[in-house]
Amino acid sequence: MTVLVRLETGLSELRSDVAGLRTEQTAMHTEQTAMRAEITTLRVEVMARMDRLQNTLIAVEDDIAVNMGAADAAQRVNENTREDLRSLREQVSVMWRQLKAVEARVREISDGH
Q: What b/e sequence results for 68-103 when a residue is b if at least 16 CB atoms lie within 10 Å of its CB, and e otherwise?
């Protein structure tokens, strides 16, 4: 009978161990499901953060493009100003010669009378 008692005791312990393993397996499955949910949440949050960073980067790029456009426009204005000054210098030079010619003509007329 001792063998039978020992077998029953062993079988009872085995059943208890299997029940414990099932409980642990259920707990692990629950934890795994929770981890999957957390990973999904993390993935969504990371993607949202990446979208915000991308939007910020696009805004910075737009600002740079606008500033570069403004700098290009200022450079064109500067170049046009130089050309305008050359043109104005030529006009003043022509007008100065005309004024000198008129002055000389006035002196001729004044000296002749």
A: eeeeeeeeeeeeeeeeeeeeeeeeeeeeeeeeeeee
